[in-house]
Amino acid sequence: MQWMIYGANGYTGRLMAKEAVARGLRPILAGRRREELEALGRELGGLEVRVFDLEPSALELGLRGVSLVLHCAGPFSETCAPMLEACLGAKAHYLDITGEIDVFAHCHRQDAQAKAAGIVVLPGAGFDVVPTDCLAAQLKRDLPDATSLVLAFEAGGGPSPGTAKTSVEGLAKGGRARIGGELRRVPLAWKSRSFDRDGEPRSAMTIPWGDVYTAYLSTGIPDIEVYMAVPPAVIGRVRRLRLVQPLLGLGPVQRFMKARIERTVRGPSEAKRGKTDTLVWGEARSADGRELKRQLRTPNGYDLTVSAALGIAQRLLDGPAEPGFKTPSMLMGPDYVLGLPGVRLLG
Description:
This protein has helices spanning about 10-20, 35-45, 55-60, 75-90, 100-110, 110-115, 130-140, 160-170, 210-220, 230-240, 245-250, 250-265, 270-275, 300-320, 330, and strands spanning about 1-5, 30, 50, 65-70, 95, 120, 145-155, 175-180, 180-185, 190-195, 200-205, 225-230, 275-285, 290-300, 325, 345. By secondary structure, it is α/β, with parallel strands linked by helices. It folds into 2 domains: about 1-125 and about 305-330, NAD(P)-binding Rossmann-like Domain (Rossmann fold); about 130-300, Dihydrodipicolinate Reductase, domain 2 (2-Layer Sandwich), CATH 3.30.360.10. Helix 4 packs parallel to helix 5, helix 7 (about 130-140) runs parallel beside helix 9 and helix 8 runs antiparallel to helix 12 (about 250-265). The longest helix is centred in the C-terminal third of the chain and has 18 residues, at about 300-320. The chain is globular.
């Protein structure tokens, strides 16, 4: 099976391509910047390069002969729909590394088309949302009567340019939570609380993380909140943004913030990734008060994204899978994350 990394010249795409070759895989490198892609292809031993944009005719030609696309070119709010439509037409499995709720929802709505095409559609094949989705599925398995789920994480190392731009887009939309089975809009930093890390408290705030969509599909738990550990001062600043939230979605404001990211954000270096890890918390509760808590320690989120997404790609390259929309735990099982390099279950 021929397969492709689209956006291979981006921060995460490069990491993905290099690790794929280290594993003995030969992906097609694709994207919109010929010079960067061809240089990377030469660096990685003469990999095939395809240069095309996300227009329908270009996509049709670009995906010719491809059976799987690992889509790494964000922001996925702009790039997912055309790439997914092309994958459905080409009958190529679609994977991406999004964490955007609306992208998960769009992909989920294509379930029937994916089944008809005989392909798997699995957004969120990286740090967003493999560790949290698998942890949620483990908690549901071990506490079947759970009615509420809290997930949280503390990630070190800083964001890539793509992640930072996605965060900027999300500010204008406010927060999200799953309440009574329904996806609801809530204020920015709607709730705050603390989580224990190695005996020390970590303050955290709710964020519109992809699990408020995907964990409901994976577990059926009706009440879901996701938190990110940040200093109290950050929580205060985010809450003050509520006052200007309508302005944050304006085109000039978005362009200004994204241009600043382009100038200042480069993504964590290899050394920094090696020195930083991530802690993931999960708490499930039943209506009668029973509670189950677990923690995962993982490598830096970008390193986990690479190993998680390539593991899922390899699974689909190795043989058939039931077609349709899948979350990571639905396709790979709740314990998939525990087999990834550097992941430990703490409790």
